[in-house]
Amino acid sequence: MASNQSRLVFDIETIGEDFSKIDKTTQDNLTNWIKREAEDKDDYERMLDDIKNGLGFSPLTGEIVAIGVLDIDKDKGGVYYQSPDLKSDKFEEDGIMYEPMDEAGILKKFWDIASKYSVFATFNGRAFDVPFIMARSAVKKVKPTKNLMFSRYLYQQHSDSIHIDLCDQLSFQGAVRKKGSLHLWSRALGIKSPKASGITGDDVGFLFKKKKYLDIARYNVGDLKATKELFKVWEEYFNI
Question: CA of 146: how far to CAs of 79, 119, 135, in Å?
């Protein structure tokens, strides 16, 4: 990997739809399997709660509320986040630009920034972030500028769009039985975990309902910084 290539970390935050506002046909489509498999009423309610709480994991029932980007070498970046019904101005803090915009604007901004980079680092980006971004871009009619899903193997990827999914790399493309989370890798390697603030990805939906939009954006920055530090470890000790 050439040392002069521009390198970017990115990460997304998502929320799910309000299940009670989804049309009945879609509700049935999402729940018909638990009606068959639930052992009793309590089991059904537990499984139904899991479905409701998991809507943000799919771009078909969720949306992106923040995308953060961080230049690995310049240590500068931005978080582009939704802030509906709450007037917010963009501002810079510790080298990070915080800028509110709608989901379509977030996606356009991401792809515009991505077009200027050739190496991309994520944690679980191949399994989650990129497929989610691609699907939501199609929903919002936003044209991608890079193919970040071409191949999971780095030697097969195009030189102008190398995607290094650290979760995939550190599990040796699935050879390791259990994949460590970003928190576990951060803990083991002495990197400040994004969970240290007390917020996890599971809290994003709740924070969004409470209009804590900036809290979500700042949590996203924690993910970016931890991923950047993990990338440096991978580059020095694993990429041989």
Answer: 19, 11, 14
